[in-house]
Structure formats: C-alpha cells, structure tokens
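Sequence design from tokenized structure. All designs in this work follow the same two-part layout: the structure record, then the generated sequence. An example of the structure record is given first.
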C-alpha cells in the first residue's frame, strides 16, 4: 500500500470517527430534550434540560464544526449535520436504541398502526416521526382522490433553513401505499408521519415537488418542452417506475399526469392507495364492480371487469401522446360534452379532446403511443419491453433534438379547439371544474374508445416496433 492509499484510508477512517462522535453528541441532546423532537412518550423528560434548547443546539453545531476544522476536513452542513440528524431520528435507529415495540407503543395513537407497518415493510431506515410543532404556513394545494394535500413550511430545530414539504391527509389506504412503495421504490418522496394537533388527522410528510405534477408542467409551458431527447427520457423514467411496480407483481390502477410528480429534474409515479396485486386486480375489479380512475386514462377492458399490467400501460400511452400534443383533459362532464358535440356532427375530428396522430412527430414515436393504446391488451408492450426499446432509442438520439415546427402548429391548433369548447361550455353550463379521479361502477363507466382516431395494426409490440429508428 503506497502513501497515497494510506492517506486516503486514514481520511476515510477519520471521517467515520467524526460522524460517530457527531451521532453520539446528537443522541445525548435528543435525550436531554425529547419534547423538542416529539419523543416525550419514548424518552422521559428531564426538567433540568427543558430550557435553552436553541443555545444547546447552537453550541453543539459549533462544536461539530470545530471537530471537522481541527482535523482539516471540510465541513458540509447538509451531509455532516442535517443528514446525521435525520438518521438519528429515523425509526430504525430509535428502534435500535430503545426497542421496536417501545417505539411503536410510544407513537401517537393515530399513527401507531402506520408506524407498525413501516417496520413490517422495512421502511424504518427512511422514515421518522415529525412533531406537529415543526410545521407552519399550511396551505391547501389540492385533493388527490379522497385525501387533501397541503403545502407547509417545516422548521426542524436543528436547521435554521426551513424546508417546504407536502402534507397528505391519509385514510385507510395509507398502509397499502406504504406497502407498495416499499416493494417497488425507495421512498424518495415519502419521509415520515405527523398528526395535526387541531384535527387529529394522520398525515404523510412528503418532499415538496419542485415543479408540481406533469400536467401542471404541460399546462404552464405548452411550447416550452419540445425537445425529443427530454421527452423520451421522461417516458423512459415513467416506464421504469411501472416496470419496478409490475416486477413485484403489482398494478397501479390510477396512472394519470397528476399522479406524476416532477422534482429535482426527475419524475415519480405517486399515489399507490389503489394498487393491488396483479393476479388479483381483475378479480377485485369484477367483484366490486367498480373502478377508481380518471377519464380517458381508463383502459377499455376495465369496463368488462378486467384489469392487468397492460391496463397501466394503456394509461401511460395516453400520457406519451399528451407529451407531444399538450392536450389537457378536463373533468368528465366537460370531456364527454366535447365528445357528444362531435357525435352529433358524425365527425370524430370535431371532438376537441380526440386522440389522433400528432403532425411532425417521428414515426417511431407515433408507434409508441399507438402500441400502448392498442384495444387488445395482449398487443400492448409490457413495461420492461417498453424500457428496452426506449433506452435504445434514447441512447441513439443526439443530446438535443428539437421537434418539427409542425408539432408546434398542431399544439397551438389543438389548444385553441379546447379553449373554444370550454368557453362555450362555461357560458351554457357554468364553471369548468377541475379533473380528478372518480369512483365509477362498471355499469356507468363511460367509454372513451371513440376518442381515439388512430389506425391500429393489431399486431404485437415487438413486431410493430421492428426496425424503429430515432431518425427524424
């Protein structure tokens, strides 16, 4: 081992020792003032240490900085301080120190069942309990299904820089969402739990999306994201999300653009409350004779009580088409009114929400959305197939591939049609409401097959995409 390797080894060992010292110091402070961290039911309160918490934290921070500076190691606030605090407050390390049963029993009564599930699903390394006193400036930002979502400012006492988070009120479907996320993804967005002191609502604490959801992105910048390399990368990421989910034998059952969050230039499929094991999805749908979803993302076979992984792919196919058409679908009432107007004229092209070929898009891209929207599920790709084809295409594309000017013209024309219909609708029938997922019985689930004016080849995906080339 030469001198350079010895120096590197020494630096690594020193870094580990400094982190260990920091963890021990943080643990001592938590045990002195457990009330400050919402752990008073787990760690007895010592009246001698209740006061001067800010001063204690400031003193510890200065001490940690000096640890690093005196050892000639650059101090990183996020890595050497905030991240260590998150670790020490995680359910995993609390359980290691105080015992899993003690941590579960000490949880807020409203959260106890969810905390137990977090341990069962091995999510305890990522999750923590957040005391309600850390949150302020709570504002309603929307409703996902039956759950309200709020933005809030979180101010943990160990960090002077507040962070923006999303708080989602959870219902009985919470445990299903926790379970599915643990099987398919690292919980990058889901950080832990809190309970609202005034209402008693159990809430998921989630990372606030920097850019909202993908539908908001398309609405705000309809002509601002027309680079084919970027769009293909987005589809690839979503296909990978679904492939991960399907690999563990689960169907999402509610894929649409509002359930795709954009954060840190990445995309995450969210809302797994209605996810079910793939082998049970059809039987659950047929037995309940109901489906929870959003038009027109619900696959045609669902009306017959059939739901498989290929039904998720159909929903993705609509999104693939939207990423180049930029057509945003309104509430079911408005959507179906547009279709009724076109049926009265016997011309499907009069439907402002029709799904047709986008002028100027490469042939291989057209094949992608056509194959995903095939009426017969067996002709659609599975998510893993889609990933393989997309990865090959994405790798061949240049760093930047602006789309043809005809795509812009198509988007402008389609946006004008949609706006014109919604103006007319609002004058006659009132306000155009927002589009959300709804609970339908199979008997009253409207068909949107007539929205699609594409020409299907009715052949398997592999055959349809043979010789696909990313040449414009």
């Amino acid at each position: 081992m030469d001198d350079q390797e010895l120096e590197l080894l020494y630096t690594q060992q020193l870094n580990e020792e400094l982190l260990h010292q920091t963890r021990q110091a943080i643990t001592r402070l938590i045990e002195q003032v457990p009330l400050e961290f919402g752990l008073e039911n787990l760690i007895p309160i010592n009246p001698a240490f209740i006061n001067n918490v800010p001063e204690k934290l400031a003193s510890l921070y200065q001490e940690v900085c000096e640890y690093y500076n005196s050892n000639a190691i650059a101090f990183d606030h996020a890595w050497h301080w905030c991240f260590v605090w998150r670790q020490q407050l995680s359910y995993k390390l609390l359980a290691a120190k105080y015992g899993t049963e003690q941590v579960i029993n000490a949880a807020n009564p409203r959260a106890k069942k969810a905390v137990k599930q977090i341990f069962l699903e091995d999510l305890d390394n990522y999750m923590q309990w957040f005391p309600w006193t850390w949150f302020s400036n709570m504002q309603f930002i929307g409703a996902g299904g039956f759950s309200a979502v709020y933005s809030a400012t979180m101010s943990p006492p160990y960090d002077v820089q507040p962070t923006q988070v999303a708080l989602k009120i959870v219902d009985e479907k919470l445990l299903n969402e926790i379970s599915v996320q643990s099987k398919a993804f690292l919980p990058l967005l889901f950080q832990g739990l809190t309970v609202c002191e005034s209402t008693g609502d159990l809430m998921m604490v989630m990372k606030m999306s920097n850019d909202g959801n993908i539908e908001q992105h398309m609405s705000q910048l309809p002509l601002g994201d027309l680079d084919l390399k970027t769009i293909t990368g987005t589809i690839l990421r979503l296909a990978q999300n679904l492939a991960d989910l399907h690999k563990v034998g689960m169907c999402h059952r509610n894929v649409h653009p509002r359930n795709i969050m954009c954060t840190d230039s990445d995309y995450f499929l969210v809302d797994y409350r209605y996810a079910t094991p793939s082998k049970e999805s059809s039987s659950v749908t047929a037995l309940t004779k109901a489906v929870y979803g959003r038009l027109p993302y619900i696959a045609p076979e669902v009306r017959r009580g059939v739901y498989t992984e290929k039904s998720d792919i159909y929903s993705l196919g609509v999104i693939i088409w939207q990423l180049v058409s930029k057509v945003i679908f309104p509430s079911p009432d408005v959507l179906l009114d547009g279709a009724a107007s076109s049926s009265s004229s016997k011309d499907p092209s009069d439907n402002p929400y029709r799904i047709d070929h986008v002028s100027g898009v490469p042939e291989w891209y057209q094949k992608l959305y056509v194959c995903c929207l095939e009426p017969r599920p067996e002709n659609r790709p599975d998510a893993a197939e889609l990933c393989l084809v997309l990865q090959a295409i994405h790798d061949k594309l240049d760093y930047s591939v602006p789309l043809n000017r005809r795509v812009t013209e198509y988007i402008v024309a389609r946006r004008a049609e949609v706006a014109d219909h919604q103006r007319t609708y609002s004058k006659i029938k009132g306000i155009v409401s927002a589009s959300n997922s709804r609970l339908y019985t199979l008997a009253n689930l409207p068909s949107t097959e007539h929205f699609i004016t594409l020409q299907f080849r009715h052949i398997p995906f592999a055959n349809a995409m043979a010789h696909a080339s990313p040449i414009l």
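The chain has a mean pLDDT of 85. We note this feature because it recurs in several other targets discussed in the main text.
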